[in-house]
Amino acid sequence: MDKKLQGSWLIHHTNKLQNVTNQGQYQSTFVAGKAGILLSAISETNQSVLPNDKLEVLANASNINIGFELPRLLELLKEQELIDVTASGVGVLGVTTSSALQHTSSIFESLSPKNIEISAIELAESASIKPVRSSELGERLSDDYKLSTKEIKQLFYDSESIGFVDAEPIGKDEKLLFNGNLFRRDSAVKTKAVLDSLNSSEQAALTELIQSLKKNACVPYPDALKILGERLFKKVNAIGFFDINVVSNSQEEVGYLTLPAAFSKFSSSMVDDAFDLAKAFVASLTYGMTKSDYARGQISMIDRLLGALIDGREVGPVSAIGQDYKILELKGVVSIRHGTKGGRSGPLMRLLKKEVGELALQAIRQGDVSEQSIIALPGAAITKFRGPEVNREIIRREQIQKSPFETNDMISALRTGGGF
Residue 404 above 90 pLDDT? Predict the structure, then answer.
């Protein structure tokens, strides 16, 4: 498997493993994924030096324990010659999102992972291409990775319970396996298969939402819910048909939708935005375009702003920078300081990860991010971003509790229809 793709699955699996108390047989996956998450958080496009206090803030924001996880992860990154560790901080080589994923894969391989860990990645990749029968996949993985019948059963049990994949029952001792990355590639073919599985009124509603998402970079959650109705909304969200991105502040949580492939026109968006950085950036930029007034720094020329950031220039000073980009600062995407520019004083911002800015600009140019396209974002500082896989998982769990066969028709259509 391509190293970038393997690295993105390691990040995906690690995010799932963080929600369980015991990582069991997936220790190498967890350690490598944590190392990749830390590397992404502390690295910039160019070589940089990070003092200990900032290192600990970024690690803590990445859900990395400062006391016992951080020292081990720094040691691993040093062994890979990616950082230099000193008494006052760390020196970090220039690292992009893609190279961070490659390094995550290399760290994983250096830890001598078990066959069940490697097969869990292969399982997730297969289930992201199209839904696959558990019996069919079990036979293949058993042959390829020399796993016993007992180990295959354990792999499927772990993968479903931890959340590496979702499972839809289709008969006695048989399930269709899939995950939330189904629509990050070949989306047009898969969209047709889903539409063909719905009745005429559902088709019309979903088509209306798709057209709105293609026209606009994002659609508010309440608008999407109004178009689809709660049942159809939850049904299509459970299979990852669209992404729900949630931004939060001290007052409220607000969600909006994007198409899963919106951040990657020419390659796998799963790889390009494995850390959800571009989605978080677009959320903050959209807020600045639609909710900020002129006095606090409303964004009126997004291309020029992103162009300046991508070129390595500082932007500001405006008060909005000090509030709207806190989550990006915690993710190591931007650096914010108080300074003077053009005779004015205030918060100034510099982009640390050039490729994230380029990806955000691509997504914004593909859709019309306007005040009409997203009117529901909060009016206070954005302090939290919850990515689409977490939101899909929440709705999927609710759905399973009500009916384990809710998405069966669409999953079956994805497996058998649309030219697969």
Answer: no
Length of the chain: 420
Q: Which is more confident, 226 or 191? A: 226
Residue 405, pLDDT > 50, answer yes
State how far the alpha carbon of 82 is from the alpha carbons of 39, 94, 314, in Å.
Answer: 9, 9, 26
Q: CA angle at residue 405 from 174 to 11, to 5 degrees?
A: 75
| Distance from C-alpha of 285 to C-alpha of 277, rounded to nearest angstrom | 12
Q: To which residue do tokens 């190279």 refer? A: 99
Q: Which two tokens stand for residue 301?
A: 């020329």
Question: How crowded is residue 386: how many other Cβ atoms within 10 Å of its Cβ?
Answer: 17
Of the pLDDT bands very low, low, confident and very high (cuts 50, 70, 90), residue 371 is very low
| Segment among 49-63, 100-114, 292-306 with least mean pLDDT | 292-306
Q: Is the pLDDT of residue 113 over 90?
A: yes
Is the distance from CB of 365 to CB of 216 less than 8 angstroms? no
259 and 243 Cβ atoms separated by less than 8 Å: yes
Question: Is 211 exposed, middle or buried (CB count within 10 Å of its CB: 0-12, 13-18, 19+)?
Answer: exposed
- Residue type at position 160: E
Compute and round to an integer the Cα radius of gyration of the chain. Answer: 22
Mean pLDDT along residues 82-89: 88
Neighbours of 305 (CB within 10 A): 18
Q: How far apart are CA 22 and CA 15, in angstroms?
A: 13
Residues 72 and 286: their CA atoms lie apart, in Å, by: 38
Q: How far apart are CA 330 and CA 42, in angstroms?
A: 10
- What are the two backbone dihedrals, phi and then psi, of residue 65, each rounded to the nearest 5 degrees? -65, 125
| pLDDT digits 0-9 by tens, 248-279 | 555 556 677 777 776 554 344 455 556 677 77
How many Å separate Cα 236 from the centre of its chain?
18
Distance CA 318, CA 223 (A): 31
C-beta separation of 91 from 78 below 8 A: no
> What gap in Å lies between CA 162 and CA 209, rounded to an integer?
31
